[in-house]
Specification:
By secondary structure, this protein is α+β, with helices and mostly antiparallel strands. It has helices spanning 15-22, 48-58, 75-100, 104-124; strands at residues 2-8, 29-33, 36-44, 65-68, 71-73. A hairpin with a 2-residue loop joins strand 4 and strand 5 (71-73).
Amino acid sequence: MNLRIEFMRTKSPVFDRIISVVRQFPTFKEWDSDGIHLYSVEFVETDFESARTVIDFVRGWKGVTYYRDGQLISKGTAYRAAFDEIFRKARRESELSRTYGNTPADFVRIQRRLKEREDIKKAFGLDGDGTEEP
């Protein structure tokens, strides 16, 4: 999923600062359309934290449009899409960390612990849910 944010020049006192920030993104573009100077920046799922930050920057500006995979969407939908993807990414990372650890050493330690649990279950004749096997 891609999220594109387009906006035009505003009278905001922080406009120049925000432009200098979004210019650092490789997907930043600026062009003229019907005499209006437009700016846009596009984000992929892996960088939705930055997308949410830019959405916060341009919040309240007139002339801001949001596109998800090329389809025009509302500001609320854009913000939710960015937040949801950030949440999903954090949850995936948490699940991976819990399963595999953060380093190869963690992975080995977790795998040993799981093996020990299996060995203990077999030694006591347990089937995994705390009951004895017949």
